[in-house]
Write a sequence for this structure.
């Protein structure tokens, strides 16, 4: 089982994965991003290993989701129904969207359409 470690301090958000099986396992693939105006208060989705982590996110109307690219390859967050699309995000790129209305919104990465996720606003 993998968990996401989020540490906020000194204006940086550090995101890494570790294994629960080893209590002293090192953090693998740490991604650091400077806290920007849109990031605090957001639900964070990490793009890593050609996946969205977590793949499904639940938020309330009016809340924000921020995608952070922790891959060396560029990715997007693009709603299947056209409700939002990020620019092509290079490594450490950040995109934030606000979700004003309830609904289910499947999304994908434009260059890698096998990367999929779902936002549920309830």
């Amino acid at each position: 089982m993998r968990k996401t470690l989020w540490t906020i301090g000194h204006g940086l958000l550090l995101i890494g994965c570790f294994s629960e099986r080893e209590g002293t396992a090192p953090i693998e693939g740490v991604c650091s991003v400077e806290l920007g105006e849109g990031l605090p208060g957001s639900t964070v989705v990490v793009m890593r290993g050609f996946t969205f982590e977590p793949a499904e996110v639940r938020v309330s109307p009016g809340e924000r989701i921020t995608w952070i690219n922790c891959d060396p390859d560029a990715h997007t967050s693009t709603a299947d129904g056209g409700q939002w699309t990020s620019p092509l995000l290079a490594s450490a790129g950040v995109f934030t969207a606000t979700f004003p209305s309830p609904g289910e919104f499947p999304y994908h990465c434009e260059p890698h359409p096998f990367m999929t996720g779902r936002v549920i606003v309830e």
Remarks:
- Residues 37-121 form a domain with the Immunoglobulin-like fold (CATH 2.60.40.420).
- The CA atoms of residues 1 and 21 lie 8 Å apart.
